[in-house]
Amino acid sequence: MRMKALKYVIVYFIILQFVVPLLVPSHEVYHNRIDYELTKSNLHDIDAVLDQIKRQISRNKSDNYIILLGDSVIYGSPGNSDQPVNVYMEQLARQTYGNEAPAIYNLSMPAMQLGDIYTMLLKLDEHKISTDRVIFNIRYASFVERTPWPPAVFWLKDELRKLDPETFAHIRPQLEATGYTGPEGLYERYKHLLHEDLLPKVSMFRYKDFIIKSVKHAYSKARGIPIPDDALGDPRPWFEKEGLEQYLKSDEIANSYSDMSFDLSEESPDVFFLNQIANHQQGTDTMIVLTGVNQQLMKDYVQKEGYKQNMSRIDRMMESFPFPYINLEGKIDDALFTDHTHFTAEGHEALGSLLWNAYIK
Q1: In this predicted structure, which of 189-198, 241-250, 315-324, 337-346 has the lowest mean pLDDT?
Q2: What is the pLDDT, as a whole number, of residue 267?
Q3: 325: CB partners within 8 A, 6+ apart
Q4: Residue 303 phi, psi (nearest 5)
Q5: In the chain, where are the structural domains located?
Q6: CA-CA-CA-CA torsion for 91, 97, 99, 102, nearest 10 degrees?
Q7: What angle, rounded to 10 degrees, do the helices at 114-126 and 269-280 form?
Q8: What is the pTM for the complete model shown?
């Protein structure tokens, strides 16, 4: 009897593995971008998103898609998930190619560093999603010296450890300087293995956040309650907001836009990861975008000679890479910014136009 019961349990488990992902509405897992509010607390949600995208690609039987990777600017902060740049790029793609337009998947996350972007490329490989067509962004702040914050891999440290141990070992001292600690001792290693490697492979655990989300949304709809907007902040134009000028004087901004001369050697964690990305993307249709800042709001920073020299040095460095590169500093109307670096919905539309037209050249 016990063996028979065990067989039923095993069969039930196998069925659940296949059925659970199909029960969760696809738009609850991925709607134009990763759900930041869920994922920031459970990074394994990214795997559910990649599963969903892979399923859509297989269903369409087409490799006609582009991957966007980057930080909060490409993600679409502070607006909602109907307003990120890929939404406007897909509209232009349909105008250009009609039914042959590529899908454009946005796998960016606020605070993503170049180390996270490299790791996400490895995760795409793991999920057998092509990285032949990729657009990713860098920023001026990407190359400011880390003292030691922020970590060169903000989100995906454990994923990098698993997927590329050699690269992880190289960058580990910088990560440890910002507070990273790996599992120590037999019990900690076992617990880490269970929660980081084994349980996330079980569909019920991998999709639990999206199951809860879909149940809440279904309940709200049944009761006639509006689904809350998923904007991350105030999307109004910067000139309608109070307190921004004080924020721009904060240490966070001063450090991020320092005019100290950049170290663009391999000693820079960001140059190191930029080279790792370039090696991974050899022979692909990859485009690199430097997203700029609000020139009027940031005039005290961007007018400094050191800032201008650093920006020129970034441009010269990018000439050595075998990919198209566009510098968007000063290319988008300041009125379309919502703060020093993020955009209104109209700003994302303008960004989408610039990226799409540059990519199809």
Answers
A1: 189-198
A2: 96
A3: 287, 288, 289, 290, 315, 318, 319
A4: -85, -5
A5: 2-359
A6: -70
A7: 30
A8: 0.94
Q: What percent of the chain has pLDDT over 90?
A: 83
Using CA atoms, how far residue 198 sits from 44, 176, 185, in Å, is 11, 25, 18
| Token pair for 13 | 């488990």
Q: What are phi and psi of 67, to 5 degrees?
A: -105, 130
pLDDT for the residue 4: 57
pLDDT in tens, 130-173: 999 999 999 999 999 999 999 999 999 999 999 999 999 999 99
Nearest to 356 by CA among 333, 329, 326, 336: 326
Contact 163, 119 (CB under 8 A): yes
What's the whole-number mean pLDDT along residues 271-279?
A: 98
Neighbours of 256 (CB within 10 A): 18
Dist. CA 283–CA 300, nearest whole Å: 40
Return d(Cα 56, Cα 54) in angstroms, integer.
5
* Closest by Cα among 233, 194, 219 to 80: 233
Q: For residue range 59-82, list pLDDT tens digits in order.
A: 988 899 999 999 999 999 999 999
Measured CA to CA in angstroms, residue 322 lies from 46, 113, 151, 304 at distances of 29, 21, 27, 30
Asked whether 12 and 38 are in contact (CB, 8 A), the reply is: no
First to last CA, the chain: 67
Asked: is 2-359 a CATH 3.10.129.10 domain? The reply is no
Predicted local distance difference test score (pLDDT) of residue 15:
55
Length of the chain: 361
Select from 142, 71, 134, 70 the least CA-distant residue to 102: 134
d(CA 122, CA 126): 6
Q: Cis before residue 322, ω within 30 degrees of 0?
A: no
CB atoms under 10 Å from CB of 251, counted, come to 7
